[in-house]
Design goal:
Elements (H helix, E strand, L loop, with lengths): L1 H15 L1 H12 L4 H29 L1 H18 L5 H13 L4 H12 L2 H32 L2 H22 L11 H4 L4 H4 L2 H30 L6 H21 L6 H12 L8 H29 L5 H29 L2 H25 L30
Helix pairs in contact: 1-7, 1-8, 2-3, 2-7, 2-8, 3-4, 3-5, 3-15, 4-8, 6-7, 6-15, 7-12, 7-14, 11-13, 11-14, 11-15, 11-16, 12-14, 13-14, 13-16, 14-15, 15-16
Length: about 400
């Protein structure tokens, strides 16, 4: 587990920085506008969102190593060719690179579900969420620093090399994606989607989307607030405080004796985000985002935990890919939604819009989870949900119970 988390951290830090690397290349290397850079970033993000379930399904059917090595090769080709592609071709290539991005995050989550017992899984997913926060803190900062010291082409090559190295490292480790006693898709056949893509999975995907919509919007609201105060240079400090608080929250949550429901954590995250708009300078804003930061990693970890418990083992790759797609879509839409709220009102409206998006997703997810036919849903009582494939299945239970 330690080796997997270390190698996947390298890949995830580079993947979180890929949009920044392409932005710096288009703006500095091609001397084009930020709007043009946003087009490339949007193409890459759209590819990632669409490719998650496809790659997950391929992993379920073909195995881990073949998919990882294929994506590694394609990433090497893309990032090496970035400096020689004209803008029009770069748009299409970025979409293709996103579609076949190394699935480091999804594979890590699948491996955690396979390598841990029911009692260990919550703490392991909390640690995975901490890993994600560290990647967001480190990756973009390294790219910005590298662009200031070297050329944007070199930075693009470095990001590609790190993605490829991380993917190759995971392939070399070849972590198990099925626990003992869990059959893969080839052995038992894939259950129809209508049997596992029910109210429970839809609820958790809704909350995954809502959580990242909130997080994607908060970053923009922070910048808008400090820009109005004439302190925009302090935005990096506020974002860093937010990230450190999230890391601390993930470690604390992983050590708790009993988990909390996903809808409750997301609802609390939405509630504490709204009053952050009352802060008008950077010291108060640092204090205001601590509460949201403490709840971020726990919320994301319970989402990942719920997907691993709800999805049957034979389709866990596709389910994890759907989770990644929902989160990517949330990040992509968070900034535009909050941006509209800021333009229509004031920076405080951005925090309100982000918080309300989280609350709406928590309410929707909570209501949907109550419609699930399972006697105990991991979304509402995660502490009592068992590991898929490790407990006797009741005769009246649906697949994945």
């Amino acid at each position: 587990m330690a080796a997997l988390l270390g190698v996947s951290l390298l890949a995830r830090a580079a993947i979180t920085a890929d949009v920044m690397a392409l932005t710096m290349y288009v703006v500095l290397g091609l001397s084009m506008s930020y709007a043009a850079a946003g087009g490339v970033a949007a193409a890459l993000t759209a590819g990632v969102a669409l490719g998650g379930p496809l790659l997950g399904r391929m992993i379920d059917r073909r195995g881990l190593r073949s998919v990882l090595l294929t994506t590694v090769v394609l990433q090497v080709v893309f990032w090496l060719s970035v400096p020689i592609l004209p803008y029009g071709l770069l748009l299409g290539a970025a979409f293709g690179a996103g579609l076949l991005m190394v699935p480091a995050q999804a594979v890590t989550r699948q491996a955690i579900a396979a390598m841990t017992t029911a009692g260990q899984r919550r703490a392991a997913f909390a640690l995975e969420s901490v890993q994600g926060e560290l990647s967001y803190i480190v990756g973009p900062a390294v790219v910005i620093l590298g662009a200031a010291k070297t050329s944007p082409s070199v930075v693009a090559w470095g990001v590609g090399a790190a993605i490829a190295a991380g993917g190759a490292g995971i392939a070399l480790l070849n972590p198990p994606l099925r626990a003992d006693g869990e059959a893969d898709a080839g052995a038992t056949g894939r259950p129809p989607r209508r049997e596992w893509l029910g109210a429970g999975i839809v609820a958790v995907l809704t909350m995954a989307f809502g959580a990242t919509t909130l997080l994607g919007g908060v970053d923009l609201a922070i910048v808008a607030t400090l820009r109005e105060a004439g302190q925009v240079s302090w935005a990096a400090v506020v974002v860093a405080v937010f990230g450190v608080a999230s890391v601390a929250g993930g470690l604390i949550y992983g050590a708790l004796s009993r988990p909390l429901p996903t809808w409750l954590l997301l609802g609390l995250l939405g509630l504490v985000t709204i009053p952050a708009g009352l802060a008008h300078d950077w010291p108060w804003l640092c204090a205001a985002v601590v509460g949201a930061g403490l709840l971020t990693a726990p919320t994301l970890s319970t989402v990942a935990d719920a997907v691993s418990r709800l999805a049957p083992a034979s389709v866990r790759g596709e389910a994890t890919g759907l989770q990644s797609s929902a989160q990517s879509a949330g990040f992509a839409l968070g900034s535009p939604i909050v941006g509209v709220a800021i333009d229509a009102s004031m920076p405080a409206g951005g925090f309100a819009a982000a918080g309300l998006a989280g609350l709406a997703a928590a309410l929707t997810g909570g209501l949907l989870s109550r419609r699930s036919p399972r006697r105990r849903s991991p979304l509402s009582d995660p502490g009592r949900a068992g590991a898929p494939g490790r407990e006797p299945r009741r005769a009246d239970a649906r697949p994945g119970t």
